[in-house]
Design goal:
By secondary structure, the protein is mainly alpha-helical. It is built from 4 helices and no strands. The N and C termini lie far apart (about 70 Å).
Length: about 100
């Protein structure tokens, strides 16, 4: 759907009538207002979804992203600790063999 709309939008932009319309300051101002309105509506919607999720004791997208980030960090820390432990074990074994 998005691809179709993008394609149609590009076709429209090539139309000389649309190009002329886009040069009109009023049209551009109205388009900017529409884009800003969409952003505000999306922000408002996201806040309301977060409120509902919290009231139902559900995780939000933001919380899930943070959880995934924390898990990735812990996995990296665990891998690093395993490598360090393996290196320490190898070093200890070498010291014991040399003794």
């Amino acid at each position: 759907m998005k691809d179709i709309l993008t394609k149609k939008g590009l076709e429209l932009m090539q139309d000389p009538r649309v190009a002329k319309l886009m040069q009109d300051e009023r049209v551009m101002k109205t388009m900017m207002q529409a884009i800003q309105l969409r952003g505000r509506l999306q922000e408002d919607f996201d806040q309301r979804v977060d409120q509902v999720a919290r009231s139902l004791n559900l995780a939000t997208k933001k919380e899930l992203r943070e959880l995934k980030r924390s898990m990735r960090k812990m996995e990296q820390d665990l891998e690093r600790a395993k490598r360090e432990a393996a290196a320490a074990k190898k070093s200890l074994e070498e010291q014991q063999q040399n003794a």
